[in-house]
Amino acid sequence: MSKGLPPMPKIQELIRLYGLSAKQQLSQNFLLDLNITSKICKLAGGFKDCTVIEVGAGPGGLTRSILAAGAKKVIAVEMDPRFYPALKMLEEASEGRLSIVMANMMDVDEAQILSDYRAEKTAWPQQSKVKLIGNLPFNVGTHLMLKWLRQIQPQEGLYQFGRVPLYLMFQKELSDRIAAPIGTHDYTRLSVMVQQLYQPKIIYEVPRKVFVPAPKVDASVIALEPRIKPIGDVQSPEYFEYVCREIFTQKRKVLSNGIKILGPNAEKDLLEGINVNLRPQNVTIEDFVKIANRFTAWEGKKKNIDLLEFKNQGKSLRKDQKQEQEIVDLQNRMKKIKTKLREKEIEKQEKKKQKDLELAQALAEIDNEPDEMAQLVPKDKQKATQHMSTLLKQSQEDDQDEYDQLFDDEKVTQEEHYQHLLDKYQDQIDYVKESQLERAHQKEIIKQNRAIIDTTLINNNNNNSKKNNNKNSDTDNDFDQLLLDENIDYEALLNDIDNIDINDIKKNY
Ligand SMILES: C[S@@+](CC[C@H](N)C(=O)[O-])C[C@H]1O[C@@H](n2cnc3c(N)ncnc32)[C@H](O)[C@@H]1O
Fold first, then answer.
1. CA–CA separation, 332 and 336 (whole Å)
2. For the Ribosomal RNA adenine methylase transferase N-terminal domain, which residue ranges apply (predicted)?
3. From the DSSP assignment, how many helices (H) and strands (E) are in the chain?
4. Among the three residues 226, 258, 293, which one is the final residue of a domain in this structure?
5. Pair 96, 193 in one domain
6. CATH number (domain holding residue 127)
7. Is residue 58 within 6 Å of ligand 1 at its C-beta?
8. Does one domain contain both 17 and 120?
9. Residue 412 lies in a domain
10. Has residue 191 been placed in a domain?
11. How far away, in angstroms, is 136 Cα from ligand 1 center?
12. For a pocket test of ligand 1, which of 80, 138, 167, 221 has the largest count of ligand atoms closer than 8 A to its C-beta?
């Protein structure tokens, strides 16, 4: 049990209790082994007396270890509301040391939450009393890292609180690239951009098997300590990012050739004093800064340079995450509907069996071969129904003869005669009529089912694009309505649902 916390249910138990299965599509891979999370905290240098922002707290495994490591305050940011009850339980046990912020970290104002929770400000270049840690989906982690990286030089956001180190879990390959030394295969745009501002160090390699569920790749925790003084003095972070991006697209060319991508005469105007025979992977960060600063002031650069990637990264991530979430929700609703339909189908089959049995019994009463009829009914209801009509007709005719005779003998009145016939056959006649109608009706129902499914999905897509929050309830109402119909052809409906390709829905976004 975690030091400093009262006894609490295990994370695995909370996951079971609150039904917190990982959403694999959203790359939720949990760390449930507290030995591992404690080791990560230790390798991050411990959190004693620190204010720690934990990004993507999930069910709270790592959170417990951070608290156990003596953090003064933990601010756990999580965007998936399913985790709120589990985190709330931990918050209550933490005696004020844990606070939960339910939000997308892309939208969080770090300086605001740190002031709200009275984090201590430390003057640059001292080591900060604030630390940030996160086991995030890998793509999200990269976007956020770029967000924090851009806050360093203007000392905004996190960096109003001093030299805040970041401890981020990435897929191993990405951490290797971020930390890659110059001259290695892994030295890329990201290495240059991150290392210009941070001192990176891989502190822990985490094999995939320790996550639940296991991702497809191994991971590692990288520590990013802001440099006291960045390498070089970048004039425009936007152009620095642009220049690094463009030059690394020319990885196989030496600088004198590759630089041409930045515009005509770039070689003459931007490379003075730089070894032009190097490939990008051998160019120092200082030289990248020099080239980028010259480019920023350069008249010869292309007009309308696309800096959109730099500006829109956060936006596109938010959009991607929202869409992924919507698709997961849609898939979950489909799953629920399928379960409901299967139950209804079983119910319907039971009813059908019962009806067939009743039909067989009814036939047995007017036929001398009950066994044969009992076999015929479940196999071919239409044939059985026809057979039953013939038998009924025959039987009515026999009775008619018998009663005509009685009537002729004046033993019964005409009225009694018809009443007798009516009573005897009414039920069977109704049943036969119903059965004959059934097939035509079924066809109609199948058509209706298809129409409802089509409309529901179209509505769903339209609603998604209109960002209409009521879409789920509309869709659910349609389906609930559908399920109320006793005569529904569940099998056809299930087939239709099975044939829905979730990728088609994705395409429509
Ligand atoms: C890989 S899981 C890790 C959960 C937990 N920290 C652990 O180690 O078991 C990532 C968590 O980050 C959350 N998350 C993903 N994107 C986020 C974002 N933009 N802002 C806040 N939380 C996010 C997910 O909902 C999920 O709970």
1. 6
2. 36-228
3. 19, 9
4. 226
5. yes
6. 3.40.50.150
7. yes
8. yes
9. yes
10. yes
11. 5
12. 80
Residue of the nearest CA to atom 11 in ligand 1? 56
Residue in this structure with the two tokens 């009685």, named with its chain if needed: 406
Q: Is 134 in the pocket of ligand 1 (CB under 6 A)?
A: no
Give the predicted TM-score (pTM) of the model: 0.67
Check if 98 has its Cβ closer than 6 Å to any atom of ligand 1.
no
ipTM: 0.98
- One domain for residues 297 and 403: no
At residue 100, what are phi and psi to the nearest 5 degrees?
-110, 135
Which residues face 77 on adjacent strands? 55, 101
Domain that holds residue 477: 449-508
Tokens of 111: 């300086």
Pair (195, 283) in one structural domain: no
Cα(26) to centroid(ligand 1), Å: 9
Number of domains in the chain: 4
Do 219 and 276 lie in one domain? The reply is no
The Å distance, Cα 78 to ligand 1 centre, comes to 6
Task: From 216, 53, 202, 15, select the one nearest 130 (Cα to Cα).
Answer: 53
Give me the residue label for tokens 């240059």.
Answer: 192
Domain termination site, one of 298, 313, 328: 313
The label of the residue with tokens 């039920």 reads 427
Do 498 and 362 share a structural domain? Answer: no
CATH number at residue 291: 1.10.8.100
Would you say residue 4 lies in a domain? Answer: no
Helix or strand or coil: residue 273? coil
Enumerate the known binding-site residues for S-adenosyl-L-methionine: 29, 31, 56, 78, 135
Q: Is the dihedral of CA 84, 85, 91, 94 positive or negative?
A: negative
**CB of 171 shorter than 6 A to ligand 1:** no
Identify whether residues 367 and 489 lie together within a single domain.
Answer: no
Burial of 310 (0-12, 13-18, 19+ CB in 10 A): middle
* CB 78 less than 6 A from any atom of ligand 1: yes
Question: Distance, CA 480 to ligand 1 centroid (Å)?
Answer: 33
137 and 243 inside one domain: no
Over the chain (509 residues), what is each successive 10-residue block's mean pLDDT?
65 74 69 93 94 95 95 95 90 94 94 96 92 89 90 93 96 95 95 97 95 90 96 93 93 94 92 95 97 94 71 65 69 72 79 77 58 55 62 66 66 61 58 58 60 55 46 48 53 58 48
Is 440 a member of any domain?
no
Atom of ligand 1 nearest to the CA of 80: 25
Q: What are phi and psi of 13, to 5 degrees?
A: -70, -40
- Would you say the CB of residue 62 lies under 6 angstroms from ligand 1? yes
In one letter, which amino acid is 26?
L
**Which positions ≥6 away from 117 have C-beta within 8 Å?**
51, 73, 75, 99
Q: Is 79 in the pocket of ligand 1 (CB under 6 A)?
A: yes
